[in-house]
């Protein structure tokens, strides 16, 4: 019988290789910064990912989307430098903005606990990021709603009595092939367009049956039609609180 094993020297060699690769990555990153100067993702101010001014304009001020079937909240508006931040982060290669965006979502999560009023008990909470299509995920290299959901979860945990009862479930929702673009559509058209295009995994469905609060997290919301479709396919139990949250809201679409 042939035995396989790794020597202590082999472990040291592997650690050395990993350390060397990290150093190379650091050098390359700094080299790229010299060639392509770092600028604010919102206003192009130099030497920062997100300047103080743009950060303050994105500061969470929780408000509700009007005329929705269940509460859907947003932290700020999709306009001005906020629009630049989200658009460049999602679709123009500025993934370096993920950390400040995650931090903003965390602040929003703390505020959302107070708005949803479940601080007096210890509810079981599931935060579910809204899905991106496979094509969008491949092109971006990440799912924006998962960044939002991660920060939101951390903020919610800070505001409840039982932080471990707040869980995030990335990948629980999937987009079916053939989903059409929702841009520029009114509320009713959006609802018809998205109907049947989102599905929930068995794991998420099972978790939903035993939870008290479901929060559907997204990066941008207009009418809430897509979040509403996600809530519909989850079939939450009677008495379960369902809410939506997006970091930014666009101007309200036509009915």
Automatic annotation (TrEMBL):
Which interval of the chain is the signal sequence? none
- Reading the lineage from the top rank, the first entry is Bacteria
Annotated InterPro entries: ComF/GntX_DNA_util-trans, PRTase-like, PRTase_dom
The similarity annotation says:
Belongs to the ComF/GntX family.
The cross-references to PANTHER family, in alphabetical order and at most eight, read: DNA UTILIZATION PROTEIN YHGH
Indicate what this protein is called per its UniProt record.
Answer: ComF family protein
Q: Identify the species of origin.
A: Populibacterium corticicola
């Amino acid at each position: 019988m042939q035995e396989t094993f790794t020597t202590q020297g082999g472990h040291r060699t592997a650690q050395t290789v990993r350390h060397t690769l990290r150093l190379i990555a650091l050098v390359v990153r700094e080299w790229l910064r010299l060639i392509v100067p770092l600028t604010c993702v919102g206003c192009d101010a130099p030497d920062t990912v997100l300047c103080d001014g743009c950060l303050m304009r994105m500061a969470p001020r929780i408000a509700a989307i009007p005329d929705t079937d269940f509460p859907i909240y947003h932290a700020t508006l999709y306009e001005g430098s906020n629009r630049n931040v989200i658009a460049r982060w999602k679709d123009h290669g500025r993934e370096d903005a993920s950390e400040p965006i995650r931090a903003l979502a965390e602040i929003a999560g703390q505020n959302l606990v107070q708005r949803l009023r479940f601080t007096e008990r210890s509810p079981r909470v599931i935060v579910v990021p809204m899905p991106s299509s496979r094509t969008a995920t491949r092109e971006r290299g990440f799912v924006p709603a998962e960044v939002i959901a991660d920060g939101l979860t951390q903020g919610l945990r800070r505001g409840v009595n039982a932080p471990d009862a707040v869980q995030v479930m990335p990948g629980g929702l999937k987009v079916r092939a053939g989903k059409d673009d929702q841009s520029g559509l009114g509320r009713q058209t959006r609802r018809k367009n998205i109907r049947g295009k989102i599905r929930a995994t068995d794991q998420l469905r099972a978790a939903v049956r035993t939870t008290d609060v479901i929060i559907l997290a997204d990066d941008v919301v207009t009418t809430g039609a897509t979040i509403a479709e996600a809530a519909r396919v989850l079939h939450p139990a009677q008495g379960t609180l369902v809410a939506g949250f997006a970091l930014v809201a666009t101007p309200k679409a036509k009915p």
